[in-house]
Amino acid sequence: MIFLMDLQMMLLDVIYFILRSSVRVVLRPRTKPIDGELVLITGAGGGLGRLFAQEFTKHGADVVLWDINSSSNEQTAKLVREMGGKAHTYTVDVTNREDVYRNAELVRKDLGRDVTMLVNNAGVVAGERILDCPDELMERTMKVNCHALFWTVKAFLPQMKAQNHGHIVTIASVLGLFSTACVEDYCASKFAAVGFHESLAHELLAEEVEGVKTTLVCPYIVDTGMFDGCKIREEMELLLPPLEPQYCVEQAMNAILIDQPLVCIPRLTYLPFLSRLLPWESNVVVYRFIGSDKCMYPFIDTMRKQVCNTSIKVA
Ligand SMILES: NC(=O)C1=CN([C@@H]2O[C@H](COP(=O)(O)OP(=O)(O)OC[C@H]3O[C@@H](n4cnc5c(N)ncnc54)[C@H](OP(=O)(O)O)[C@@H]3O)[C@@H](O)[C@H]2O)C=CC1
Ligand SMILES: CC1=C(/C=C/C(C)=C/C=C/C(C)=C/C=O)C(C)(C)CCC1
């Protein structure tokens, strides 16, 4: 009897949340104030990381910038300070667990307060077909795009739980929800990042830690240069052009500021979820029609040229 009552309640809740999210597409909920929050962004020297730092600054938050590249990280800090924001930079290799824990302590000591929003943004890609790809590059992708999330969450979640206040943002990718050819390292790492993030979100909900929010961000191609060359069929590109970095970050911020648990950017990329219901062979023909089966070929060639040019320079 209780089972049937639970089943009825569950179904009513499912319908309620479907209706609520449909309404929210039109009537956007109020955004939460984040002035006074301390936001830590990994990969803050890169394309999206830099824009996130500026966006959080616009909303009055102080930013802690972590990147393996100190000069690009300092450049981001300079831009934040020119906006009148507060930026604190640390040169951190997020694949080095000890480096993460040590610098997390350093942040607490230097600033005298806890990080309240964590944006796991740092990411890399090998850019080689698997049989041409050095093992070290594949390992690096997993370490940056996935393992790093373990260390940063272990470093900052305890205080968020203690305060029952915080927000964990994972910048994953649509390639963490569905795959394509020639990015086995990247897809593996982003699928893992999605799995990690969702398990963490379930854990916080199961423990009823209401004050610690999570947002999983899954963008399509963004024009930061990371995937230069990646192209789908011309006609389809009209429907799905690469994202402007600023637009991508604004869409992500809109989701973060209303505590939205998942955002795919653009909305059209929610559709491939349905492909899971189709037979594999159907997906293959859809991929071929769209040109997404070989969309990474030009990217791989671009990366190969870059590596050749760099090695010639070094030589
Ligand atoms: N660009 C795109 O098309 C898309 C990107 N994404 C994701 O968005 C995120 C940001 O991407 P994007 O801004 O384009 O990439 P960028 O390459 O521009 O920025 C990534 C940043 O992470 C830094 N980084 C790399 N390795 C480490 C490390 N071990 N420790 C600390 N920092 C590190 C990089 O430093 P350095 O430059 O020195 O390597 C760089 O500053 C990534 O997670 C990416 O996977 C998701 C969807 C689409
Ligand atoms: C596979 C595929 C598509 C193409 C996806 C591409 C090309 C994604 C590239 C994403 C990148 C580069 C993410 C980086 O993090 C479509 C057209 C959505 C249709 C559904 C199947």
TrEMBL record:
Catalytic reaction annotation: all-trans-retinol + NADP(+) = all-trans-retinal + NADPH + H(+)
For this UniProt entry, the molecular function terms from Gene Ontology, in alphabetical order, are: all-trans-retinol dehydrogenase (NADP+) activity
What EC number is given for this enzyme? 1.1.1.300
Give the bilayer topology. Answer: Multi-pass membrane protein
User: Matching PROSITE patterns, A to Z?
Assistant: ADH_SHORT
Location in the cell reads: Membrane
Q: Which domain of life is it from?
A: Eukaryota
Q: Which CDD domains match?
A: 17beta-HSDXI-like_SDR_c (cd05339)
The UniProt entry, under SUPFAM superfamilies, shows:
NAD(P)-binding Rossmann-fold domains (SSF51735)
Q: Which UniProt keywords apply?
A: Lipid metabolism, Membrane, NADP, Oxidoreductase, Transmembrane, Transmembrane helix
Family stated for the protein in its record: Belongs to the short-chain dehydrogenases/reductases (SDR) family.
PANTHER family linked = PKSB, RETINOL DEHYDROGENASE 10-LIKE
Q: What is this protein called?
A: Short-chain dehydrogenase/reductase 3
Organism this protein belongs to: Seriola lalandi dorsalis
Lineage of the species this protein comes from: Eukaryota, Metazoa, Chordata, Craniata, Vertebrata
